[in-house]
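Pilot study result, target chain (72 residues):
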Amino acid sequence: MYNVVTENSSLEEIKKAFDELNRKMGELEEKEPAEAESEAYAAWERECEALAFRSEELMTWIDRKMTAGLGA
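Predicted structure:
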């Protein structure tokens, strides 16, 4: 799904994982099930939430790396 990175990975690795995750989120958005009350929709929604959580995590790590790079 995306590169396996940790907060100790390089800024470039984290950014690459973030880009890959954004592509995956876009692909998933295109596959939204039509029936909102279906199990398929519930599964789709869970996957969207998991990707959104991971996205926030990666953005936090990017922010920390960039801030540290400024000597803050």
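One observation from the pilot: Residues 3 and 17 are 5 Å apart (CA to CA). A full batch analysis is planned for the follow-on phase.
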